[in-house]
Write a structure and sequence with these properties.
heterodimer, A: mainly alpha, 0% strand, B: alpha/beta, Rossmann fold, Alpha-Beta Plaits, 6-stranded mixed sheet, 4-stranded antiparallel sheet, 12 helices, 27% strand
Chain lengths: 304, 336
């Protein structure tokens, strides 16, 4: 502290000496006014919080791993039906009839890939609430950075995070016994394109919900309200054919379903509930629509 | 300080929320170049709303304002590029070093990498954080954090810097140091500073001009000396040995505005107490009387403030989010 004071006094002394001299005049200068400037800085800021806090990374991974390990292994339908005295062959074809694959673990492992995306996207909404409360958002808003870049920085960081997380979950699933019989490089690439589109759409959706809020409790409640319906109202855990028709209607508009559908068709060679082309078209439409709305809303809502 | 040109021109600026509550009501004032302008008022008076409008975070409901020559409503991006802001909160990233934080701010302004490297060093020097540049912000003391925020606010070399409660929660030594940096910015760099504070005596010492607002309206504006003079001048208390009534004699002295005799003590109101007092003493002595004691009391900024905003306690108008951010700010200010 004394250090600080003496330095300030030194600064003060210097001031009085140079008081008469005209100091360097600061004026406006040419800066990069492209709409995208600062986008990388904002994206990197979000990512840094993540890779500089390994605990956070660990926690976001542990949840799908627990689901994979507990739920996926406990709901071992071949064992469940195997106990009923049916021949193994019959059980396998029964499962194939219901799930499109002969083991449930592989089926839900693909669902877990989208589950990870859903969670990461939800938290990107949460982070803007904290930024507002800590005054960071106001500081960024008072700079010439474009309003859209503030939202897109969060979206892109969610994209990077969730794709890395999804990759780790996929590796873990394979290690835990996922069926790798029909995995191809193109299949993996296609699946990740689908996951990419889903993250863009979902994280702009959750960010839009949070754009005006400065109350993290409300935001948390909204997240909890949406998270389970979005997960269970999709084909991530159970096949659409086993659901009542009203639920099927919801599943058919839920983008998570189309992402899972792509993953199942490309990674497991299972039949999908919609053709691949339609799946991709739906996801492209979803992500383009939501990111456009997101950028427009961020222009409107970030300045009151 | 004579203003050479207006950096901020506010004209009938108003803001109402939800169509009813008038947070800012028909505000008009100007801030001149190279001026340290203090913006004072009780909590909920409309200070924050005004600053948010001037820094383009809020759109005015009516009226207009020009900041650095740009209209806040039609050219917000030009305003943003021209000004710097030191928010009340500590917004620096705890996990990053001071230097990384300044570089981040530079990126937000679109300052090219090469320029931002040099400027970061220059600013670290300016606020005396060169030694701590590579330390994580979480190890910084409150004063260091505040100086880092100031450095971030200067990254675009603004002509005008907004400071919201720059010394909130800091101890006296650190506060003095922060004010010294603020004065230095004006003198060495020709900057204009617009700031809010609740430390009235400090505002008195630092500001060239002060505006007091309450209930969204401007109640008084002027130099600290003018504001204090507006209370009717200084109070001179004078004791005289003799019993005779000297009221008439004292009244004849220059710049004396009123005299009241209480026992053997005269309470004199005068415009410039320190100049009036010797004159009064001379006048009394010339008539052969004896002055036994004398004191001159200047009105304080506290008195000015209470005079114009009243003594009524303000009920907490701050909402939960504001309280939260203030708690965080205070906690970080006191960290070592």
């Amino acid at each position: 502290m004394t250090d600080l004071v003496s330095r300030a006094q030194a600064a003060g002394a210097a001031t009085s000496v140079s008081a008469s001299a005209t100091g360097p005049s600061w004026g406006m200068e040419k800066t990069d006014r492209a709409k995208t400037h600062g986008l990388w800085a904002l994206t990197n800021r979000e990512l840094m919080k993540w890779y500089k806090t390994p605990v956070l990374l660990f926690m976001t991974l542990i949840q799908p791993v627990i689901w994979l390990g507990l739920f996926g292994q406990a709901m071992n339908f071949s064992k469940v039906f195997g106990g009923s005295g049916l021949p193994t062959q019959a059980v396998a074809s029964l499962l194939k009839g219901v799930f499109g694959v002969s083991d449930y673990f592989s089926y839900m492992a693909v669902g877990m890939l989208t589950f990870v995306i859903l969670f990461t996207a939800m938290f990107s909404g949460m982070s803007i609430v904290w930024d507002r409360r800590f005054g960071f958002l106001d500081k960024v808003l008072s700079t010439p950075v474009s309003r859209g870049a503030i939202v897109m920085g969060k979206v892109f960081s969610a994209v990077v995070r969730s794709l890395i997380q999804a990759a780790i979950v996929l590796v873990l699933a394979v290690l835990l016994g996922m069926d790798t019989g029909s995995i191809t490089a193109a299949g993996i690439a296609g699946t990740f394109v689908a996951l990419f589109l889903l993250t863009i759409g979902l994280s702009t959706f959750f960010l839009m919900l949070a754009l005006r809020s400065n109350d993290w409790q409300t935001q948390q409640a909204i997240m909890n309200l949406l998270n389970l319906p979005l997960l269970f109202g999709s084909n991530a855990l159970f096949p659409i054919t086993a659901m009542p028709t009203w639920l099927q209607d919801f599943v058919r508009v839920n983008p998570i379903s189309y992402t899972t559908d792509i993953g199942r068709q490309l990674l497991l060679g299972a039949p999908g509930f919609a053709p691949l082309g339609f799946d991709f078209l739906f996801l492209i439409g979803f992500s383009v629509l939501f990111s456009t709305i997101g950028i427009i809303m961020s222009w409107k809502l970030l300045t009151k | 300080m004579q203003a050479t040109g207006a950096v901020i021109r506010v004209n009938g600026l108003s803001k109402s929320f939800n169509g009813k509550v008038k947070a800012v009501d028909d505000l008009s004032f100007e801030v001149g170049e190279r001026e340290i302008f203090g913006f004072l008022g009780p909590n909920g008076a409309g200070k924050t709303t005004t600053i948010k409008m001037l820094t383009t975070l809020l759109k005015p409901s009516s009226g207009s304002a020009e900041v650095c020559g740009y209209d806040i409503a039609s050219d917000p991006n030009d305003v943003r590029a021209a000004i710097g802001i030191v928010p009340q909160e500590y917004t620096a990233d705890e996990d990053l070093t001071g230097q990384q934080n300044i570089r981040f701010c530079a990126d937000l302004y679109g300052i090219p990498r090469g320029v931002s490297r040099d400027r970061t060093n220059e600013l670290l020097d300016l606020v005396g954080l060169q030694d701590a540049a590579d330390r994580k912000v979480q190890t910084y003391s409150g004063g260091m954090r505040r100086r880092l925020e100031i450095a971030c606010g200067l990254i675009n070399h603004p002509r005008l810097l907004f400071l919201d409660e720059p010394t909130l929660g800091l101890d006296v030594q650190t506060r003095t140091a922060v004010w010294d940096y603020i004065k230095k910015l004006k003198v060495d760099y020709g900057m204009t500073l617009f700031m809010t504070t609740h430390y009235l005596e400090e505002a008195d010492g630092v500001c060239d001009r002060i505006a007091i607002i309450d209930h969204g309206r401007l109640v008084k504006i002027g130099s600290p000396a003018e504001l204090k003079a507006s209370l009717g001048g200084d109070i001179i208390e004078l004791g005289v040995r003799e019993d005779s009534d000297l009221t008439e004699l004292i009244m004849q002295s220059k710049s004396v505005k009123g005299v009241r005799k209480v026992d053997s003590t005269y309470r004199i109101k005068a415009e410039l107490g320190e100049e009036a007092a010797p004159n009064i003493i001379d006048a009394i002595r010339s008539k052969g009387f004896h002055v036994t004691r004398i004191s001159v009391t200047k009105p304080s900024m506290d008195q000015v403030y209470l005079e114009y905003t009243g003594r009524t306690l303000r009920d907490a108008e701050a909402d939960r989010a504001d309280m939260f951010s203030q708690r965080v700010t205070l906690r970080r200010a006191r960290s070592r």
